Amino acid sequence: MTSSRPPTLGFIGGTGPEGAGLALRYASAGHRVLIGSRSSERATATAEGINQRLGQDLALPRDNAAAALESQVVLLAVPYVAQQETLPALAEKIGAKVVVSVVVPLAFQSGRPHPLAVPGGSAAQEAQALLPGARLVAAFHHLGAKHLTDLAHPLEGDVLVCGDDAEAKAVIMALVEELRDLRAVDAGGLDYAQPVEAMTAVLLSINRRYKAQSGLKITGLPSAGLPVRQAGSGHRPSAGSGHRPAGAGG
Ligand SMILES: NC(=O)c1ccc[n+]([C@@H]2O[C@H](COP(=O)([O-])OP(=O)(O)OC[C@H]3O[C@@H](n4cnc5c(N)ncnc54)[C@H](OP(=O)(O)O)[C@@H]3O)[C@@H](O)[C@H]2O)c1
To answer: Model-level pTM?
Structure first.
C-alpha cells in the first residue's frame, strides 16, 4: 500500500445497517469497500445501494472470506453472538492485518438495552483470541447506523479507540479522523474495550428517553498533542506492514 491510496476496507457482516453505514461513509471518503456477507444477493444489493448513492463503483460484493482476504483493514460488523461461528474460518485470510471491531455485546430485556456479560472480557478481546495473528482494535461503537447512513447528517463527537498494538491503533485513529468532525481518542489497551462496548447500552437508553441519537464527547483533552495528530502529521500510518510494535497498550 502506498501512503497516497486509501486502504481497501473489508466489512465482515457488511450488509447490516452498521457495517453498510460505515462502508457508505468510507466509500464517500474514497475508500474501496468490500461488502462481506454469507449471501451473494445481500452483498450485491448492499454494494449496489452504496454505489448508486455515491455515483461511483467503490463498493464491491464479496463473501466474508474474500472480504477478509482482499482488504487491507478488516471491520468486524457481525452481531456478537455470530463472532464465535464466523471468525475462526477467517483467521488465516486475515493473518496479521489490522482488524477493527465495532461489535457490541448487547441484549434487549423488555425493550431495554443491557450489556451482555462476555466470558473473554469484551467482544474485541474474544475476537483477538479467535484471530490470534490479527492486530485487533475496538472502535466506532458509539456511532449509530442511523446517522452513518444519512450522509446529510454530519457525524460529531469522539470515537474511543482501544488496542494493544500502537501501529494498528494509529491506523484506525487516522481512519476515524478521515470522517469530518469526528475526533479519535486513544482510550487505552484492548482491555478497555469492555466498558467502551458497554457504554453503547447507556447511549441507547438515553436515545430512548430523549428520542435522540446521542454520542460521546470527552472534555479536558489538550487541543494538540493527541496521538493521532502526531501520527497523522503528514504521515498516514501503514495498514499493511504486518509489523507489531511492542508496548502499545493502555
Ligand atoms: N446498528 C447500530 O446502530 C450499531 C451501532 C454500534 C455498534 N453496532 C454493532 O455493530 C455490529 C453490526 O450491527 P448491525 O446492526 O449492522 O447488525 P446486524 O444487522 O444484526 O448484523 C450485521 C450482519 O451480520 C451478518 N450476520 C447476522 N447474523 C449472523 C450470523 N449468525 N452469522 C454470521 N453473520 C451473521 C448479517 O449479514 P449476512 O446475513 O449478509 O451474512 C447481517 O447483515 C453489531 O455487533 C452491533 O452490536 C451496531
So the answer is: 0.92
